[in-house]
Amino acid sequence: MTVTWEDLGWERVAAGVGRCRLPVWDCTIGLVAGEGAVLMIDAGSSLAEGAKLGAQARALTGHRVTHLALTHPHFDHVFGAAALPDTEVFGAVGVDALLTRVRDREELREDGVRQGLAAPTAREAAERLTPPGHLVSGEWTLDLGGGRQVLLANVGPGHTAHDLAVLVPGDPEVVFCGDLVEESGEPQAGPDAVPSHWPAALDRLLDLGGEDALYVPGHGAVVDAAFVRAQRDSLAARFGVSP
């Protein structure tokens, strides 16, 4: 029996492109299917969550996750990564150092626990974190086979110093924004945010996708270009950034 996106609680965004919203932190996970290759976008908040996502990806596509793009280094997006073995992992330049340094992994663990993640779960995930093997400084095109190409773009800094977006060409085009865009609440600016550059990062997202694209936030419902532009203007006003 064929498993559909809806059967597993995923939302089909375009042909071969879907996403799910995880419980607790409402983190978005993206999935792009090619021919024998599968890209996952972010990995969830724990090893158990990452393993479950990997199993669901195989059920939906018939293949294991072969590529993983990490949109930014926050616990709810990266802690599941080690549960996806033999996967080519991509991140923005600089995220490798952050995920290697003991003090930075400890900060991620502490943040997870503060947000309600069980301490043993957070510790195990932090200890098994490894840096991406592929670092994106500008743009990187992935060929997933079957005519499916995906563009990874280093569009930050903004929400963090290491923000990566994913453009999936098609009709419609789909842009996975990470937490540069949030729909379910006001964008969160923690101590690692770079507010002075955040509006410019959203301009880059709009340049990537254009007016007719679907924009998938790190948290919340899929939005359009008008929403992204309004959030850009709101952030500029909030942080006193000139147009």
UniProtKB/TrEMBL annotation:
<dbReference type="InterPro" id="IPR036866">
    <property type="entry name" value="RibonucZ/Hydroxyglut_hydro"/>
</dbReference>
<protein>
    <submittedName>
        <fullName>MBL fold metallo-hydrolase</fullName>
    </submittedName>
</protein>
<feature type="domain" description="Metallo-beta-lactamase">
    <location>
        <begin position="26"/>
        <end position="219"/>
    </location>
</feature>
<dbReference type="InterPro" id="IPR001279">
    <property type="entry name" value="Metallo-B-lactamas"/>
</dbReference>
<dbReference type="InterPro" id="IPR050855">
    <property type="entry name" value="NDM-1-like"/>
</dbReference>
<dbReference type="Pfam" id="PF00753">
    <property type="entry name" value="Lactamase_B"/>
</dbReference>
